[in-house]
Amino acid sequence: MSYLNKRLLLAAGLLLWPASQLLADEQATTALPYSPSLNLSSMDRSADPCDDLYQFACGGWLQNNPIPADQASWSTYGKLYVDNQRYLWGILEELSKDSSNRTATQAQIGDYFAACMNEEAIDLAGIKPLQAELAAIEQLQDRKGIGALLGQLIATSDTQNYFMAIGSQQDAEDARQTIGAVFAGGLGLPDRDYYLEDNEDRKSIMQAYRDHLTAMFQLLGQDADLAKLSSTTVVRIESALAKASLTLVERRDPYNTYHRMSLAELQKMAPDLDWAALFSRTGLKIEPWLNISQPLFVLEVQSTIQRESLQDLKTYLRWALINTRAEMVSKPFRDQNFAFYSQRLRGVDTQRPRWRTCVSMVDQQLGEALGREFVERNFPSQVREDVKRMTVQIQYAMAERIDSLAWMSPATRAQAHDKLQKMRDKIGYPDQWRDYSSVEIKADDFYGNVSRATWFDLQRQLAKIGLPLDRGEWFMTPATVNAYYNPSMNDINFPAGVLMPPLYDPKLDAAPNYGNTGGTIGHELVHGFDDEGRQYDGDGNLRDWWSEADASAFEERADCVRKQYGSYRVIDEIFINAELTSGEDIADLGGLILAWDAWRKETAEQDLQTADELTPDQRFFVGFAQWACAAERPESLRLHAATDPHSPPKYRINGVVVNMPEFAKAFNCAADAALVKPEAEVCRIW
C-alpha cells in the first residue's frame, strides 16, 4: 500500500499495535481458537469498576498474559492478530508444499512464502541482491543524475526512506479525481522530534542510532573510522530534513499537507532535482498537477543537494538503501536492524519467528490473494450481514444525535446529515478481488519477489491517476485486525480479521458485541466528524461546511476532551499529547455513545437478564473494555507517546466511561467515584 495510505490509516484507524505470541511449540493451525467477547477469566472482580473499569475488566487478563519476549506489547487485538497469522501460516504452508492442486493465485502466495522462509538461501546470498542498486549509487556522476537515481530506488521500495515517497491520492478539493503526490520522508528515526528535542532520553537514543548506523556501514564493508564518519553524515542530513518537517500534530490539519502544483512549479521550487526523470523512472504521471505534502521539506531537499558533497549524498543514499532492505538480506543485517529498531527503541528481547515475518510480507504484498483464502475458509456470510445491520443501526443513532444537538445550527446540521447519508460502509472484504496475475513470483527468489511485487503495487497506485475513482477499493487486507475511516472516500471499513471472536462473537448476547464491535463501528463513523474528519464533506472534499459559530462550538467541546486526556500520565514524566490523540479520543467517546444508543434500541423489546453476575448494561461496558486489554514495555510506551495518535489502552476505556452517566448508573457508582464527573464537567460532542 502507498505511504499515503499508511499515514491515513494510522491517523484514522482503531489501531492497537499488533503483537504476537511466542510459544515453545509454535506450529501452524488449521482452525482459529475460540475466545468469547466477554471473558470472565479476564476480569478482576476485586477492583471497583467505578474507580477503574479497565482493571475490573482486564485485571485477570493482564495477570495471565505477560508480554512475550519477541514483542513490545501484547493485547486482545494482538492475540487475535497472531491467531489469524497462525491460521494464515497453515494456509501458506499447505500451498507452498503441495503444488499439485493449486490455482495460479494460490501458487503465487505459496511460492512467495516458500522463498521468504528459505533463510539459508537468503543468508548465502548476503548483500548480492543489493549490488545493482549499490552500483547505481556509486556510479552517480553529478547532482543532475540524482532525480533519475531516486526514481530507480523508489520504484521497487515501499518506503519513504529516499528523501521522500511518491504515490497517488484523491485530490483533497475534488475527491472525484486521483492525482500524483510527493510525501516527505527521509528520516531513520521514528519522528522529527527525535532529532530536535534536547533531553537525556533523546540524547541516549541518538547515540544508539549513531552506533547503529556505524555498525550497518561496517556490514557494508567500510572500516570503523569511515563507518563512523558515514554515520555523522547521515545524522547531519537527516537532522536538517527533520527540522524542515511538519510535526505530527501539524500533519493532522489536512490543509497543512495539501499544496497542489504543476511539474513546472515543482521544478522551479527545487531545480537541482530532475523531477521529470524521477517521475519517469517510477511511472508517475502529472495530469495536470500533483500534491506536494510538505513544500518546506522539498525546499530542504533542494538545499541538501546544493549543500552536501556528492560523496556525502551517496553515503546518505547507501544508508537509505540498506535501511529499506535490511529485513530482506542476510542475518547480520537483520540482527543489527532488530537490535536498534526493536530492542533499543521498543524494548523487545527476542526476534519474532521467521514464519511471522513471511506471513506478514505475503499479507502486505499479495494481501487480497491471501485474504480471499482467509475469507472463503473462515468468514461466514451471516457475520457480514449481522455486522452490516449493526452498522446501519449505529448510523441511525448518529442521525438522531445530530438532530439533538442544541449547539448546531440548522444549516450545518443539514450538511452533517448529508455527509452521514453519503457515508459508505465496507464489511469483511472487497466486492472485487485484486488481480495479481502480472506479478512474477519465484519460489527461489525472495528479494526479486519483494521488488517485483512492490513495483506492481506502485504501478497499480499510479495507474489510478486520471481515471474515474474506484470507491470500492480497500486500503487494508481482509485478514487485518484493525478498522479505519477514509475521509476522502467518506467510508468506514471493517476487514474480516477484526470481526472474529473475541472482538465480534456471534455466540454471545448483543450487549458485549455492541460494546466491542459496535463501539468500533461508532469509532470509525465518528472519525468522519472528529476535529480532522469534520473538515471533509460528504463527497470527500476538503471543504469548510461549518458556520463560524458551529465550528467554535465544536472546538469548545473538543477542548474539553483534550484537557481531560492531556492530564493522563503515560509513563515517568510523559503525559498524553492530547493535540496528537484528539481525533482518536473524540472517536472513542462518540463511538461508544452511538453503540449504546443502537444497542438500547435493538433490545428495547427484549427481556434482558443478568448473566455471570453482570446486568445487561454491565455486560455492555465490560465487553467494551475487554477489546483494549493490553500491556506494553516502557520503551514502547515512550515511543508511542511521541508518535502514536492513540491514547494508551487504559485511558481509551476509563477516559470514555467517565463521560457517560449511563456507565455510572449501570454500576451504581457513588458521586465521588473516580470515574464519575459532575454533569457540568462531562465532555460530549456527538
Could you characterize the architecture of this molecule?
53% of the residues lie in helices and 7% in strands. With 686 residues, it is of the alpha+beta class. The strands form four sheets. A four-stranded mixed beta sheet has the order 2-3-5-4. It has a three-stranded mixed beta sheet with strand order 6-8-7. Helix 6 packs antiparallel against helix 15, helix 10 crosses helix 15 and helix 19 packs antiparallel against helix 20. The N terminus is likely disordered.
Task: Summarize the model shown.
By secondary structure, the chain is an alpha+beta fold.
Lateral arrangement of strands in the main beta sheet = 2-3-5-4
* Helix percentage: 40-55%
Q: For the residues shown, what is the average pLDDT? A: 94
By DSSP (H or I, 4+ residues per run), the number of helices equals 28
Largest sheet: 4 strands, mixed
Termini separation = 32 Å
Question: So what's the oligomer here?
Answer: single chain
User: What's the total count of β strands?
Assistant: 11
Q: Assign an overall shape.
A: globular
As residue ranges, the low-confidence spans are 1-12, 15-25
Strand content: 5-15%
Radius of gyration: 25 Å
| SS-derived structural category | alpha+beta
Fill in the keyword field for this structure.
686 residues, alpha+beta, three-stranded mixed sheet, 11 strands, globular
Which helices and strands occur, and which strands form pairs?
Elements: H1 3-12, H2 53-64, E1 73-75, H3 76-97, H4 104-117, H5 119-125, H6 131-138, H7 146-155, E2 164-171, E3 174-184, H8 193-196, H9 200-219, H10 224-243, H11 248-251, E4 260-261, H12 263-269, H13 275-282, E5 290-292, H14 295-307, H15 310-325, H16 331-346, H17 354-365, H18 367-378, H19 381-404, H20 410-422, E6 424-428, H21 446-462, E7 484-486, E8 491-495, H22 510-527, H23 548-566, E9 569-571, E10 574-575, H24 578-602, H25 616-626, E11 630-632, H26 634-643, H27 649-657, H28 661-666
Parallel strand pairs: 3-5, 6-8
Antiparallel strand pairs: 1-11, 2-3, 4-5, 7-8, 9-10
Helix pairs in contact: 2-25, 3-4, 3-17, 4-17, 6-15, 7-13, 9-10, 9-16, 10-14, 10-15, 17-18, 19-20, 19-22, 19-24, 22-24, 22-25, 23-24, 24-27
